[in-house]
């Protein structure tokens, strides 16, 4: 069976500085894979390429056997609104919108009706334990509350793949564990595959498998964090 999402020999540079140097990657349906390694090793660049946010300079990235590197920016944006979900370290909620408006936004952009989108958003806020914050704006929330809302927004479309880039990096240890537990539990419940970028062993421990990067390549020893995969 072919991988749900796969990369073959992808490279990416910023000017004269290489970030990825021939990376291979594969993600199966419903699998949680941690991409680990020290700061500057190319973890976030790999995630952004896999999610279609950045174009690789060379190599191929396929989703459901289709080369998304050949797609237009509009087509890749549409993919991120429907079948991909993206969660960043600082949540990146829209500060002018309430929690329910933030969570409903991906559905509205995908063409859902306003009432339907709001009902789905409220359901996800309740699932993540922050329904009481539905009418609050991000500035009135704690970091953990904001990140729970961001998780709800990333999962409201019930994506087939969730990309989580250091999702607990801005949180204290206890809140980070709670948010990560919610991400993993929800992903398992709905069969969502997850690409989880982290430099923390305690976070990578939640994954089914670890891919360690070092200096823009996959570390064959699996010791990107100083621990085995």
UniProtKB/TrEMBL annotation:
Tagged with keyword Transport: yes
Cross-referenced PROSITE patterns: ABC_TRANSPORTER_2
UniProtKB keywords: ATP-binding, Nucleotide-binding, Transport
GO MF annotation: an example: ATP hydrolysis activity
The keyword Transport appears for this protein: yes
InterPro entries, per the entry: AAA+_ATPase, ABC_transporter-like_ATP-bd, ABC_transpr_LolD-like, MacB-like_ATP-bd, P-loop_NTPase
Pfam families: ABC_tran
GO cellular component, one term: plasma membrane
Record-annotated ABC transporter domain positions: 5-229
PANTHER family: ABC TRANSPORTER RELATED (PTHR24220:SF685), IMPORT ATP-BINDING PROTEIN (PTHR24220)
The protein's name in its UniProt record: ABC transporter ATP-binding protein
Organism: Paractinoplanes rishiriensis
């Amino acid at each position: 069976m072919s991988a749900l999402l796969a990369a073959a020999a992808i490279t990416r540079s910023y000017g004269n500085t290489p970030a990825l140097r021939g990376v291979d990657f594969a993600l199966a349906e419903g699998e949680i894979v941690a991409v680990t390694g020290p700061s500057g090793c190319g973890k976030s660049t790999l995630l952004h390429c896999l999610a279609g946010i950045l174009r690789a300079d060379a190599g191929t990235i396929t989703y459901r056997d289709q080369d998304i590197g050949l797609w237009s920016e509009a087509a890749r944006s549409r993919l991120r609104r429907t079948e991909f979900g993206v969660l960043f370290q600082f949540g990146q909620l829209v500060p002018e919108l309430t929690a329910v408006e933030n969570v409903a936004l991906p559905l509205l952009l995908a063409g859902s009706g306003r009432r339907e989108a709001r009902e789905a958003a409220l359901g996800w806020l309740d699932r993540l334990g922050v329904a009481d914050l539905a009418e609050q704006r991000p500035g009135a929330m704690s970091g953990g509350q904001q990140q729970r809302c961001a998780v709800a927004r990333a999962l409201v479309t019930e994506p087939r793949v969730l990309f989580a880039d250091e999702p607990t990096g801005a949180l204290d240890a206890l809140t980070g564990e709670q948010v990560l537990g919610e991400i993993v539990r929800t992903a398992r419940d709905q069969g969502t595959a997850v690409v989880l970028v982290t430099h923390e062993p305690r976070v990578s421990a939640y994954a089914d498998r670890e891919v360690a990067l070092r200096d823009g390549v996959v570390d064959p020893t699996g010791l990107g964090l100083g621990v085995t995969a």
